[in-house]
Amino acid sequence: MRRLRVSAGLLVATAAMAVAGAPMAHASGNESPQYWNPICLAHGSQNWTVDGGTIPVPTEQLQYGNPYGTADCVEFLQALLGIPEDGSFGPQTNAAVRSFQQANLVRGYCGPVDGIVGPRTWFCLMAQN
């Protein structure tokens, strides 16, 4: 079982989002994610606003073979993509990211199809969940 260390600022932000009615993912792993994942966002986040909607997205950029991606954010990404969560950005995750990006090119702010999960892809993934 994982333990979560939460700062006072993160607790205030979490409480504010809960009061505002924003859906949140549970912190313990395999639950269905929504807009917020406190474990991943604790590593850093920024607000992204598109078409009048603002969502905090992770600042962590993920890509295939990236040794710097935290397992927490990769697991959150995998949950958003609906694939098995192992915390490793391997071939299956890479294929799922590219497929998601390709399917969402019509939404102009979601591209390009490069397999890199930066703010645009995070926003699109989180906005649809």
Automatic annotation (TrEMBL):
Source organism superkingdom: Bacteria
Keyword Signal in annotation: yes
InterPro entries listed in its UniProt record: Peptidoglycan-bd-like, PGBD-like_sf, PGBDSf
Entry annotated with the keyword Cell membrane: no
Residues of the signal peptide: 1-27
Keywords, sorted A to Z: Signal
Domain Peptidoglycan binding-like: 82-122
Protein name: Peptidoglycan-binding protein
Species whose genome carries this gene: Streptacidiphilus fuscans
